[in-house]
Amino acid sequence: MIKVGIAGASGYTGLELIRLSVNHPEIELSVLTSETYKGKPISDVFPSLNGIVDIELQSLNSEILKACDVVFLALPHTAGMDILPQLLGSGCKVIDLSADYRLNDAEAYPEWYSLTHTHPELLSQAVYGLPELHRQKIKTAQVIANPGCYPTSVILALAPLMNTDWVDLNSIISDSKSGVSGAGRKPSLATQYTEVNEGLSPYGLAGHRHTPEMEQELSSLAGKPIKISFSPHLIPMSRGMLSTVYINLKKKFCDDDLIQHYQKFYRDEYFVRVLGKDKFANSHSVAGSNFCDIGIKIDERVNRLVLTSSLDNLIKGASGQAIQNMNIMLGFEEKTGLQSPALFP
Amino acid sequence: MIKVGIAGASGYTGLELIRLSVNHPEIELSVLTSETYKGKPISDVFPSLNGIVDIELQSLNSEILKACDVVFLALPHTAGMDILPQLLGSGCKVIDLSADYRLNDAEAYPEWYSLTHTHPELLSQAVYGLPELHRQKIKTAQVIANPGCYPTSVILALAPLMNTDWVDLNSIISDSKSGVSGAGRKPSLATQYTEVNEGLSPYGLAGHRHTPEMEQELSSLAGKPIKISFSPHLIPMSRGMLSTVYINLKKKFCDDDLIQHYQKFYRDEYFVRVLGKDKFANSHSVAGSNFCDIGIKIDERVNRLVLTSSLDNLIKGASGQAIQNMNIMLGFEEKTGLQSPALFP
Amino acid sequence: MIKVGIAGASGYTGLELIRLSVNHPEIELSVLTSETYKGKPISDVFPSLNGIVDIELQSLNSEILKACDVVFLALPHTAGMDILPQLLGSGCKVIDLSADYRLNDAEAYPEWYSLTHTHPELLSQAVYGLPELHRQKIKTAQVIANPGCYPTSVILALAPLMNTDWVDLNSIISDSKSGVSGAGRKPSLATQYTEVNEGLSPYGLAGHRHTPEMEQELSSLAGKPIKISFSPHLIPMSRGMLSTVYINLKKKFCDDDLIQHYQKFYRDEYFVRVLGKDKFANSHSVAGSNFCDIGIKIDERVNRLVLTSSLDNLIKGASGQAIQNMNIMLGFEEKTGLQSPALFP
Amino acid sequence: MIKVGIAGASGYTGLELIRLSVNHPEIELSVLTSETYKGKPISDVFPSLNGIVDIELQSLNSEILKACDVVFLALPHTAGMDILPQLLGSGCKVIDLSADYRLNDAEAYPEWYSLTHTHPELLSQAVYGLPELHRQKIKTAQVIANPGCYPTSVILALAPLMNTDWVDLNSIISDSKSGVSGAGRKPSLATQYTEVNEGLSPYGLAGHRHTPEMEQELSSLAGKPIKISFSPHLIPMSRGMLSTVYINLKKKFCDDDLIQHYQKFYRDEYFVRVLGKDKFANSHSVAGSNFCDIGIKIDERVNRLVLTSSLDNLIKGASGQAIQNMNIMLGFEEKTGLQSPALFP
Fold it and tell me: Using CA atoms, how far apart are residues B2 and B336, in angstroms rounded to an integer?
C-alpha cells in the first residue's frame, strides 16, 4: 500500500482528499496535519469520519511527511512554499493544491499574489497537473502544481479551440460562478451563511488571481500571448462551479461541427464529457464526481460561441484532480477511486 | 381612494402587487382574480395576508375589472392579450406585466413567442414602462407594457452608453443570473426544490425571449440596430437578479470617468443607484426593494467594461416597477409605497 | 419627530431597526453606533441603505445617546449592561434587545449566563416587553427588556393555557427551529455558509440560555414554578423561526374547542394570528412581518396538544417587537410602521 | 455477477440505487423501468450518469424483471403491490422500497393509507428490512419491505430502551425534520423551490402515515402496544433527516450510563454510530453515507431523555438500506458498496 500524507487535513480540500482516499484501494492514509486541531483525531473535526478515519492530527513538520510516498499539500497559499523543497529532497512525490508552484514565471507572483517567490528555481520542475493536457509530463513528475478550480473549468472549455484559426483570441470572456466551499473553511464575514444565502455576488472582477494561470495555459496552447476577461461570482450553494465562456467565431459553424470537434479532442478523456446539441453544462450533473461537463452552443445571430463548463470545485477542481494526478504518477488506472457519479439531488 | 384590480392575484407578481398595495396610502384593492382559486379568500392562498387582505378571489372577467381605476394584468403570457382591449374601451388604465404588448413590432411575436398577435394595432399605443427612459410618455399613457426583469437590469446598465461613441456596440454580452421566483408559481419539474437547490443551470442560451425586448430599447437609444448575446442562468435563491454586462471600450477611460458619467445620467433617478469605484452590484442590497444598483469596472488589461446590475426580479423587475408606473400615471409622488430598503439578511 | 438612537447599528437587529424606522412616520434616526465601523456611513456597512440612510457611525458613548428620546440597545449580551443605567438617569426611554435585564432574579445570571449582574437593583424596574402580556406596564415603563426570539414564540403559544387546569404543566416540550440570523453577524465557524447549508443541527439541548426566560413568564402566568424542555435547532435559512410545542391534555377536547379559546384570548391582538383547524404555523407566512402565527392540533390518539408557533426572529422576535414596544411607550398607534405583510417568496 | 432490476429508476430512490450499484463490485444493472421516460437512456433523465450508465428505460413489466436475480421496487406506494407477487413466483428476490408490505396488519392499510390491501396473505412473508433488528430473518427472506426514512431514524433511536423498564413508554414524541428529496420527484406546488426555500413547514402532525410503522416495531420490541406522537417538518435542504426524540425517564441516570448502554447495544453495527457525551446528531455527518448517528442527552432538570438521530433519507433511509439488505440476502459482506463517508460540505 502506498503511504499518503495530507498537510492541511482539516480544511475542505483536505477532507475531500481523505474521503476519496477511503474509496481508493491502493493507498493508506499515514499522516494528517493540522495546526488548529493538532492532537485531536480528524473525526473530532469532521464527525462524518467517525469510525472510518480516526487518525490523530499532527503539527505540520517535514520530517514526519518524508516517510510518506506521496504528500498532498492542501494548505493556504504560501504556507507550503518552503515545505515543498524539503520533501522533494527526500524523494517524496508531492502534489501541491495551492497556487504556489502553478505559474512558470516567477515575476507573476509579485504582480498577482503580492509576494516574492522563495524558490523560483523549482517553478520549471513543477508540472501543471491538468491530465488532459499534460499527462505525459505528469507520469514522470516528482512535483505537481494542482490546478485551480476556475482555471480547470475554463481551460478545458477552451483547449480544443486554441490552436485553430476559427476564433478571435482577443474576445475571450469567462463569466464564472462558484459555490462557497471554494473559499475554504476559515471563518470570514463574507462567507457567513447570512451574507451568502439568497444573494448573488460578483467579486474580484478584472483582477482575480486565477487569471494568469488561465492565460499561461491558454497562451501555451495557442502559441501566442492571450489575455482574457475573467469574472468570478459567489453563488449560494456549497459545491459546484460553472463557467460560461464567450468567444467570437471567425467563420460560420453549426453546433454539430464544433460538438464533433470537441468530442474528437476529448475522445480518450474519461473525465471530460462533451454534451450533445442544445445541452448546457449544469453543476448538478458533476457535483460529487470528478467529471467536467462541457456544453457547446453558437449564438448564430452574433456568431459568438457560448461554452458552458461545469465541475465540482472540490473534486475535479481540487482533490479529485489531485488523486487523478497521483494515479498517473504511480501507474494506477487513472480512474481508480474516482468512479462515483455525481450525488443528486 | 383609487380602486385597483389585479388579474392573476394568486401568482407571485400578483402577491407582490398586493403586498406593495398594503403599504400604499392612496389606493385600495378592489378586485382580485384567480382561476385556480376563485371563490376563496386570497389569504387562503397566501396565509401571509391573513387578517390584512382577505378579499375573495373571482374568476377573470373584464366586466368586474372595468369598475377599477387601474388594472394590473399579472397573467401568464397571452392570457390577457384579449382582455386588455376591453378594459381600454372602458377607460381603465391598464398596466400589463406580461410580454404581450412590450414589442413594437408585431412580426417579432411569431419569431420569439411562436404566436400571432391578436391586436397588433395596439402595440404602438402601449408605452414601455421603464420610467427612467420613458417617464413623459408614461404620464399620459393609458396602457403600460411593464418591462421584463432581465431587460430592466440590462437596459438600465447600458442606457448611459448607447448614444456615445465610446463603445463597440457589436460586443455586448449580458450574462444574467436569476432567482427562481421569476419562473412563476406553476409547478414544474425544473423548478422543484431538489432540481434547483445546490445547482447552477444555464438555460435558453442564444434564444431567450427577453432578447428582442432588450434589443428594441437599446437600438432605440443608439439610433441603430443592436444585437446582443444574452445568457440567463437559474440560481438557487428565491429572489434577486444580477446581470453582468460586457462591452468593449473604443478608447481609454478610468473607472471614475465612467462612474461620473453614469451618476450624471441617473442623477434624478431615485431608484437607480450608481455605485462607487470598485463596488459591484449585489442582489442582497436590492432584494425586497424597488432599487436597481449598477456597478462599473473597467478591465484595463483588455479595455473592456464590466457592468454589474442588480434588482429584485419581483419588484423593480415586475410589481414594484408597475406601482412606480401607476404613481406616474396618476400623478402621485413616484416613490409612494416603494420606499422600503432591501430586506437583509 | 422623536429622536432615536441605536447602539449596535451594524448588527442584524440594528439594521432591522433602521429598516423599520425608515417606514415609521413619527421617528427620525439621530445616533447610530458601531465600534467596528465607527467613522463610516452605515450605508458602507449595509449598501442596501445607500441613499436612504447614510448617517455616520459613532463609537458607543452614553453622552451622545442621552440626546435621544428613545435608545435601542442592539448590543451583544453584557455590552450594554452598564450603559443602560446612565441613559435612564438622563430620562431617555431605553429598549434593550439583549438578555441583560430580562430575568427578574439576579441569581439566574450566574447560573445561566455565567456572570454576576452589575445592576441587580434595576431588574425589577425593567418591564419584560411582550406587549400581549404586559401592555399596561409597558405604557409607563422607562426601560424595556425586549424578549428573546425563542421565548416570544414559545410564551405566546402557551400563554392561553397556563392558568387553566386543562394541561399537565410538567409535560411541556418546545422543539424549536431557527434560521441563522439569530446568531448575529460576528463571523464564526459554526455559522459559515458551508457549515450550515444542507445541514440540520440541534444545539444547546437541555441547557440553552433562553430556558429561564420562558420559565419565568410561564410560571408567572401559571402561578407556580414550571420547568420545560427546550431544544433549539439551527436550520439552513436566514430568517424565520418555528416552535413546535408539546403539552399533555388532562381532559378530552376537540381542535375547535381550543382554537376558539385561543381566538378569544388573542382577539384584541393584531400581531398574533390564531390559525384555523388543521392549519399549522409556517415561517413563510410571517418572515418579513411582525406577526406571530399559532396553529393548534390535538394528537387525539395520545391526547397531546401540538402547537406550532412561527415568527420572524429579527422582527417579532427582536426589532419589530422593540418598535411595537416603543409605539406603546410613546402613545403611537401600536401598529405604526409594522403593517407590512410577510415577504414571500 | 448478480443481475439487478430497478422498477421506478427515474425517481430519486431509483437514481440512488443506480449510483450505489455503480460503486458495488458484485452486481450489474440489468433492467431499469420508467413509465414517464421509457425508450430513453437513463442518462437522458439524469445527465450525471452520462457515460457511466446509459441503459435504456423500459416500461414496467413483470416478465422482463423476472430475469433478474434481485429486483428493487422503487415505485410510488401501491404501484408495485400487484407486481411483487408475480416476481416472487419466479424466484426473484424482491426489495420493495414502498410502504406496501411494511405493516403486518392488513387492517392498518385502510386506516392509514385509505386502501384495501390486495395481497394480505403476503404481509407475513415480507421481512421488515431493518438489519439492526431483523438480520437473521433478512438472510433467508425472499421479500423485504424496506423501512421508511422517518421510521428508520426513530426506531434505531429508541430500540435500545424498549425492553428496559427505565422509560415511560407513554411519553414518546418524535419531532422529525426532513430534506425535500423524501417527497419524491413528481412536481407539486408544495415542493416548488420558492415554496420551500427560506421556510419551515410542519405537515401531517398527528396523522402521518409513518406512525403505524414505527409503532409496530417499537411495540414488538417492548412486548406491548405503544403509541407515539410523530411530527414531521419540511426543511429547506435536499438531503438529510433528523429526528429529535423525547422520552421521560423513570429513574435517574447520567449521560454516560445511557451512552454505554447504547454503545453496547450497537457494538456490532457498523452503520449505527453512538455519539459521545454532549454530542448531538447532525445531518451533515451522514448525508451521502449509509450511517445513522445517534446522540444521547438527558435533560436533568426534568428527567427527560432527548435523543437525536440523523441519517440520509435517500441512503440509510431508502436505497442504501436496500443495498444493505441485498448484501445480507446474497451473503455479501454487509458493507459492500456502502463504505463512503458523508459528502461534506
Answer: 13
Taking all residues of chain D, what is their mean pLDDT, rounded to a whole number?
97
Check residue D176 and give its pLDDT: 98
Q: Which of C231, C282, C345 sits opposite D201 (nearest CB)?
A: C282
Beta bridge mates, B307 = B245, B296
Q: How confident is the model at residue C109 (pLDDT cuts 50, 70, 90)?
A: very high
Q: Which residue has the cell 381566538?
A: C263
Partner residue facing B236 (CB), from A237, A241, A298? A237
Q: With beta carbons less than 8 A apart as the criterion, state whether D8 and D14 touch.
A: yes
Residue D87: name the closest of D137, D125, D38 by CA: D125
**Residues of B with CB below 8 A from D193's CB?**
180, 191-193, 195-197, 236, 238
Task: Tell me if A236 and C198 make a contact (CB, 8 A cut-off).
Answer: no
Cβ of A341 within 8 Å of Cβ of D289? The answer is no
Task: Look at D345 and A282 and tell me if their CB atoms are within 8 Å.
Answer: no
Pairing, β A127-128 against β A93-96? unpaired
Contacts of residue D268, defined as CB under 8 A and 6 or more positions apart, other chains included, come to none
Give the separation between CA A43 and CA A50, rounded to whole angstroms.
5
Touching chains, D (3+ CB pairs < 8 A): A, B, C
| Closest CA of chain D from B200, distance in Å | 14
Number of H helices, E strands in chain B: 11, 13
pTM of the full predicted structure?
Answer: 0.97
CB contact under 8 A, D235 and C240: no
* pLDDT above 90 coverage of chain B, percent: 99
* Mean pLDDT, residues A282-292: 98
- Whether C137 has its CB under 8 Å from any CB of chain A: the answer is no
Q: Does C112 touch chain D (CB under 8 A)?
A: no
Dist. CA C117–CA A97, nearest whole Å: 51
Contacts by residues C267-275 (CB-CB < 8 Å, ≥ 24 positions apart)? C269/C132, C270/B51, C270/C334, C270/C335, C271/C131, C271/C132, C271/C316, C271/C324, C271/C335, C271/C338, C272/C132, C272/C156, C273/B50, C273/B51, C275/B47, C275/B50
Assess contact for A138 and A128: CB atoms under 8 A. no
| Of B177, B206, B228, Cβ closest to residue A200 | B177
Q: Is A180 on the interface with C (CB under 8 A)?
A: yes
Candidate list D68, D92, D149, D292, residue with the active-site label? D149
Task: Measure the CA–CA gap between A249 and A259, rounded to whole angstroms.
Answer: 14
Which residues on chain A are in Cβ contact (under 8 Å) with C197? 180, 193, 197, 236-238
User: Structural domains in chain C?
Assistant: 2-147+316-330 (3.40.50.720), 150-313 (3.30.360.10)
Q: What CA–CA distance (Å, rounded) separates B45 from B339?
A: 27
Give the number of B-C residue pairs with CB atoms closer than 8 Å: 85
| C160-183 pLDDT tens trace | 999 999 999 999 999 999 999 999
| Residue of A156, A250, A175 lying closest to B304 (CA atoms) | A175
From A198, which residue of chain D is nearest by alpha-carbon distance? Answer: D198
Q: Are B99 and B75 in contact (CB under 8 A)?
A: no
| Burial of D66 from C-beta contacts in 10 A (0-12 / 13-18 / 19+) | middle
Q: Which among D77, D63, D69 has a CA at the least distance from the CA of D8?
A: D77
Write the single-letter amino acid at C132.
Answer: E
Strand partners, C310: C242, C293
Distance (Å) of CA A75 to CA A12, A71, A84: 10, 12, 11
Three-state DSSP state, B31? strand
Work out the minimum CA distance from C34 to partner chain A, whole angstroms.
16
Crossing angle of helices C320-330 and C12-22, in 10° steps, is 50
Half-sphere exposure of residue D234, counting CA atoms within 13 Å on the CB side? 25
Judge whether A289 and A312 are in contact, CB under 8 Å. Answer: yes
In this prediction the ipTM stands at: 0.97
pLDDT reported for residue B181: 97
